[in-house]
């Protein structure tokens, strides 16, 4: 009964730091309408809906029910999935499972966040263990800083290497009208921006955004009738490894290494650096853009700085990363992973406009969550065997 | 995009929810905290299948799912695995800790996992990965992780 699954339409909002002109349902509705228009479908064609956002961020518990005016889910099967930072990628994987099971032909997947509506730090703190970690906590940025610090010590990398990644992503965002922050910065500007937690400067990290994204997946029975050149899902992987903050191998992202190995094995990818054409990485801070592509096996341990300085991951390079500008330019958290998925799909479908990478055969998208967990999707132009 | 809202003042409803919780530490964490409070000792559980010592102690091994019933004492000295220095008074930092706050992951001698805590009695610029540190216990211990006040450098005598 298992079916091959393809993305046949995507839609997203024009992401902003504040959207006081819409409430949550209306924000969701903008993305849903754009995805339906992209696929040339009507709401009546949708068989089921998956929705997700960050727990606590808007203070609304029953988001699946509350959002139906915006999502169109009234009296349809809908489930909410929420896994912290990875939520946007998890909802996509959940949709893939629903369609792949053969139970639903057309599934609408939604990720959204109105980050401006809450105390983000307070909400993020609820992701950490109350008995062990919260009483000696120093914020989500400090956890990332500890990873970067360990990587720098282990491989001799520098703050400049991180800054180079931030310069890349912020430059790429200039090509994306949906990105929130569209301002190029120089290396010196990144390094001169205030230090938040060593070695992370303000311009090394993502903003908070209001935004929504919607993706429509269809089974192989209907996909090519809806969209002549859909984006086929080749494989997905999830690794959720958190227990306590002290468990992680700081300086390496174990969940990324194990998940991507599973992904390459499932799809028969031998050399990801050569076989992938574009990556949309859930990379909320610059140093993740160094560490995590090593864990993916794009380059060896400690080799990312040289690879990135040589321009390989810039637009026009061997393997462009984050043509959209990535998370450093836009971060409506519950939508962020799904935006990566949608952007990768647009690259495969040839719909990425000013940020299109030529001739994309395979694209990679991921989700990342604060305590070192990772979800990922491999997208392809050809129908999987 | 927002043209349809031209001339309309967006209304914002400000609200606050009071959400008190009582988190039960469970019998494994309770045993750890009672020993810490009453004996100033740091204890951990050992998975006899993996031969791995977990701190914080776990009732069940996260690697092989075996129940950990063997308790062991670990040292109050250990090695700094990684750290950062919070330069901004982030809301998540307890109010009695003022920036710069040094936040480290410390692998105590005898444990296989690191524990999260603060470093103090050292200048931020002197902290290095791999340095040896020692627990400083709090005076009025209440049975929580702050019964360890912080970690300080091991003096080279």
Low-confidence stretches of chain B: none
Which structural class should the secondary elements of chain A be placed in?
alpha/beta
Helix content of chain A: 25-40%
Q: Compute the number of structural domains of chain B.
A: 1
Number of E strands of chain B: 8
**What Rg of chain B do the Cα atoms give?**
21 Å
Sum this structure up briefly:
By secondary structure, chain A is α/β, with parallel strands linked by helices. Chain A has helices at 24-39, 63-66, 68-71, 87-100, 120-125, 140-155, 159-172, 187-192, 223-226, 254-267, 272-275, 288-295, 304-309, 326-329, 333-349, and strands spanning 5-12, 48-52, 78-80, 106-114, 195-197, 200-201, 210-219, 231-239, 278-280, 362-369, 373-380. Chain A has 15 helices and 11 strands.
Please render the helix and strand layout as text.
The complex is a heterodimer of chains A (385) and B (157).
Chain A: E1 5-12, H1 24-39, E2 48-52, H2 63-66, H3 68-71, E3 78-80, H4 87-100, E4 106-114, H5 120-125, H6 140-155, H7 159-172, H8 187-192, E5 195-197, E6 200-201, E7 210-219, H9 223-226, E8 231-239, H10 254-267, H11 272-275, E9 278-280, H12 288-295, H13 304-309, H14 326-329, H15 333-349, E10 362-369, E11 373-380
Parallel strand pairs in A: 2-3, 2-4, 9-10
Antiparallel strand pairs in A: 1-7, 1-8, 4-7, 5-6, 8-11, 10-11
Chain B: H1 26-39, E1 42-47, E2 52-54, E3 70-74, E4 77-86, E5 101-108, E6 115-119, E7 132-137, E8 148-153
Antiparallel strand pairs in B: 1-2, 1-3, 4-5, 4-7, 5-6, 7-8
């Amino acid at each position: 009964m298992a079916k091959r699954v393809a993305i046949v339409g995507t839609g997203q909002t024009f992401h902003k730091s504040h959207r006081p002109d819409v409430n949550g349902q209306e924000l969701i509705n903008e993305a849903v309408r754009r995805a339906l228009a992209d696929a040339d479908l009507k709401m009546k064609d949708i068989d089921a809906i998956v929705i997700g956002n960050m727990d606590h961020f808007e203070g609304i518990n029953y988001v699946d029910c509350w959002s139906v005016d915006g999502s169109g889910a009234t009296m349809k099967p809908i489930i909410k999935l929420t896994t912290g930072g990875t939520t946007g990628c998890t909802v996509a994987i959940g949709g893939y499972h629903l369609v792949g099971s053969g139970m639903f032909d057309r599934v609408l997947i939604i990720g959204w966040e109105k980050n401006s509506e809450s105390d983000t730090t307070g909400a993020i703190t609820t992701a950490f263990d109350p008995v062990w970690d919260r009483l000696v906590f120093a914020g989500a940025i400090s956890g990332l800083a500890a990873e970067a610090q360990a990587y720098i010590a282990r491989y001799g990398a520098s703050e400049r290497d991180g800054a180079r990644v931030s310069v890349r992503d912020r430059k790429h965002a200039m090509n994306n009208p949906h990105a929130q922050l569209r301002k190029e910065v120089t290396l010196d500007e990144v390094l001169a921006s205030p230090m938040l937690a060593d070695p992370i400067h303000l311009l090394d990290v993502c903003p908070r955004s209001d935004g929504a994204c919607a993706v429509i997946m269809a089974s192989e029975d209907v996909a090519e009738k809806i969209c002549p050149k859909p984006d086929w899902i080749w494989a997905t992987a999830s690794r959720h490894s958190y227990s306590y903050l002290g468990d992680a191998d700081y300086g390496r992202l174990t969940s990324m290494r194990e998940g991507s190995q599973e992904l390459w094995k499932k799809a028969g990818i031998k050399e990801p650096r050569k076989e992938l054409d574009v990556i949309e990485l859930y990379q909320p801070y610059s140093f993740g853009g160094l560490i995590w592509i090593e864990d993916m096996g794009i380059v060896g341990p400690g080799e990312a700085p040289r690879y990135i300085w040589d321009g390989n991951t810039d637009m026009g390079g061997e393997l462009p990363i984050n043509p959209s500008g990535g998370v450093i330019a836009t971060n409506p958290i519950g939508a962020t992973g799904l935006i990566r998925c949608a952007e990768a799909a647009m690259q495969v479908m040839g719909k990425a406009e000013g940020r299109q990478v030529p001739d994309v055969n395979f694209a990679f998208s991921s989700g990342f969550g604060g305590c070192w967990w990772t979800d990922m999707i491999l997208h392809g132009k050809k129908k999987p065997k | 995009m927002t043209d349809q809202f031209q001339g309309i003042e967006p209304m914002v409803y400000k609200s606050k929810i009071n959400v008190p919780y009582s988190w039960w530490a469970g019998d494994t964490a309770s045993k750890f905290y009672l020993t810490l409070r009453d004996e100033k000792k740091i204890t951990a559980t050992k998975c006899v299948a993996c031969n791995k010592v977990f701190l914080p102690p776990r009732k069940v091994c996260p690697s092989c799912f075996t129940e950990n019933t063997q308790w062991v004492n670990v040292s109050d000295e250990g090695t700094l695995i990684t750290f950062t220095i919070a330069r901004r008074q982030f809301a998540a930092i307890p109010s009695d800790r003022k920036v710069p706050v040094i936040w480290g992951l410390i692998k105590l001698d005898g444990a296989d996992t690191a524990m999260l805590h603060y470093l103090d009695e050292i200048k931020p610029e002197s902290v290095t990965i791999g340095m040896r540190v020692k627990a400083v216990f709090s005076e009025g211990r209440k049975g929580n992780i702050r019964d360890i006040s912080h970690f300080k450098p091991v003096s080279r005598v």
